[in-house]
């Protein structure tokens, strides 16, 4: 796969962004997808998960009520709507799916929350 994340940027506290993740080489519509993030100097952490039919969605406690994961299988794209951004949301956001025992990751998109 060739996962590519996009939509990051510099935003003020309280602002919003919509991240996107797509794979140009492989359709991952039949697989669970996840978003992770990595803050400077910290380990990568789970943010959100979505099942193939969008029936199951899970979130890290730190983002519940502010972040929404969704997907459009026709576009082979997973989204992460992030609202009410805080400085602690700063980091590189990565998309992930697992296929045949292999974890597929993109290069990430940088989200910086600063006034």
List the helices and strands and how they pair.
Elements: E1 3-6, E2 9-11, E3 17-23, E4 33-38, E5 45-50, E6 57-59, E7 67-72, E8 77-82, E9 91-99, E10 102-105, E11 109-113
Give your account of this protein's structure.
This protein has 115 residues and is mostly beta strands. Helix content is 0%, strand content 51%. It has strands at residues 3-6, 9-11, 17-23, 33-38, 45-50, 57-59, 67-72, 77-82, 91-99, 102-105, 109-113. The strands form two sheets. Strands 2, 4, 5, 6, 9, 10 and 11 form a seven-stranded mixed β-sheet that branches. Strand 4 and strand 5 form a beta hairpin.
Summarize the structure.
By secondary structure, the protein is mostly beta strands.
Query: What is the residue-mean pLDDT, rounded to a whole number?
Result: 96
State the share of residues found in helices, binned by percent. Answer: under 10%
Low-confidence stretches: none
For the secondary structure, the number of strands is 11
H-E string: EEEEEEEEEEE
Question: Could you name the key traits of this structure?
Answer:
mainly beta; 115 residues; seven-stranded mixed β-sheet; single chain; 11 strands
């Amino acid at each position: 796969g060739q996962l590519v994340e996009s939509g990051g940027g510099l935003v003020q506290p309280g602002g919003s962004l919509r991240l996107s993740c797509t794979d140009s080489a492989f359709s991952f519509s039949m697989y669970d997808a996840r978003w992770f993030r990595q803050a400077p100097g910290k380990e990568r952490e789970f943010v959100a998960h979505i099942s193939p039919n969008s029936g199951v969605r899970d979130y890290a406690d730190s983002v519940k009520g502010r972040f929404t994961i969704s997907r459009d299988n026709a576009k082979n794209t997973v989204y992460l709507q992030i609202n009410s951004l805080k400085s602690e949301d700063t980091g590189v956001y990565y998309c992930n799916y697992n296929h045949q025992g292999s974890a597929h990751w993109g290069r990430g998109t940088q989200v910086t929350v600063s006034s």
